């Protein structure tokens, strides 16, 4: 059985335009894939994490504490998703090593330790499980040359090398709560472990299915 890791952004599951049937459709999609694949999902913190991090920063908390707040938000989101996905684990693992040991065909987790984004956790999990694909499911259609939420002329990149992204972004950790498509530490692992990585819009479930099945999709391929 092949392993797939999905980093599902909190901005996807907490989006104002996501309807309850999204989770029914996600459950059905994942269920349809479990004959051939074991699927690991790392859930982000989204606006819940950012709200707590902002409050903490305003209150003068240090970066480690802000990270801890964000991690707790990812775990709340993971608990919610685990209730929606029938074949998933119901106890949320706190480390990638614990996640790897879980027998369910669908394994859901959140963040782990301060300084590790959920994209980095996903990349680490993909490396440890020797995943054949790592899918970063965010709230935009891929990697752009600039922020498409701020620039109407932003152009989506169909392909981009991991080296190019590292050169642009570096491999260090940014402040807690910073929202980027792929952060530097995650890129470092992707580069080191040569993990086939794809970035797409997680709200569009057909795109996730098409990537897993090796079909054409609307998103970005990270060349390794």
Mean pLDDT: 93
Number of separate structural domains: 1
Helical/strand content category: alpha/beta
The name of the CATH architecture is 3-Layer(aba) Sandwich
What string, H for helix and E for strand, traces the elements in order? Answer: EHHEHHHEHEEEEHHEHE
Q: What is the end-to-end distance?
A: 23 Å
CATH class: Alpha Beta
Identify the CATH homologous superfamily: Acetylglutamate kinase-like
Q: Which blocks of ≥5 consecutive residues have pLDDT under 50?
A: none
- What characteristic shape results from the CA principal axes? globular
Please sum up the structure shown:
With 224 residues, the chain is an alpha/beta fold.
Please give a handful of descriptors for the protein shown.
single chain; seven-stranded mixed β-sheet; 224 residues; two-stranded antiparallel sheet; 9 helices; Carbamate kinase
Structure characterization notes:
This protein has 224 residues and is of the alpha/beta class. The protein has a single domain, classed as 3-Layer(aba) Sandwich (Carbamate kinase), CATH 3.40.1160.10. It is 42% helix and 18% strand. Helix 3 packs antiparallel against helix 4 (63-84), helix 6 (118-128) runs parallel beside helix 8 (184-193) and helix 7 runs antiparallel to helix 8 (184-193). It is globular. The mean pLDDT is 93.
Provide the fold topology:
Elements: E1 2-8, H1 10-13, H2 21-33, E2 37-43, H3 46-58, H4 63-84, H5 96-101, E3 106-109, H6 118-128, E4 133-138, E5 143-144, E6 156-157, E7 159-161, H7 162-169, H8 184-193, E8 197-201, H9 205-212, E9 219-223
Parallel strand pairs: 1-2, 1-4, 2-3, 4-8, 7-9
Antiparallel strand pairs: 5-6, 8-9
């Amino acid at each position: 059985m092949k392993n797939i890791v999905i980093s599902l952004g909190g901005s996807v599951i907490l989006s104002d335009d996501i309807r309850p049937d999204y989770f029914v459709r996600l459950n059905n999609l994942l269920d349809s894939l479990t004959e051939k694949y074991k699927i690991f999902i790392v859930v982000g913190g989204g606006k819940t994490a950012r709200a707590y991090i902002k409050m903490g920063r305003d209150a003068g908390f240090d970066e480690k504490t802000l990270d801890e707040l964000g991690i707790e938000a990812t775990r709340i989101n993971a608990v919610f998703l685990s209730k929606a996905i029938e074949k998933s684990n119901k106890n949320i693992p706190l480390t990638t090593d614990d996640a790897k040991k879980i027998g369910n065909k669908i394994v859901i987790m959140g963040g782990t330790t301060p300084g590790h984004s959920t994209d980095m956790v996903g990349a680490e999990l993909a490396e440890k499980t020797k995943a054949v694909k790592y899918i970063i499911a965010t709230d935009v259609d891929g990697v752009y040359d600039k922020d498409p939420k701020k620039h109407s002329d932003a152009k989506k990149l169909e392909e981009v090398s991991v080296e190019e992204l590292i050169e642009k972004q570096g491999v260090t950790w940014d402040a807690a709560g910073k929202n980027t498509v792929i952060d530097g530490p995650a890129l470092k692992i992707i580069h080191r472990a040569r993990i086939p990585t794809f970035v797409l819009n997680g709200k569009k479930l057909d795109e996730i299915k098409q990537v897993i099945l090796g079909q054409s999709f609307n998103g970005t391929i990270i060349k390794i």
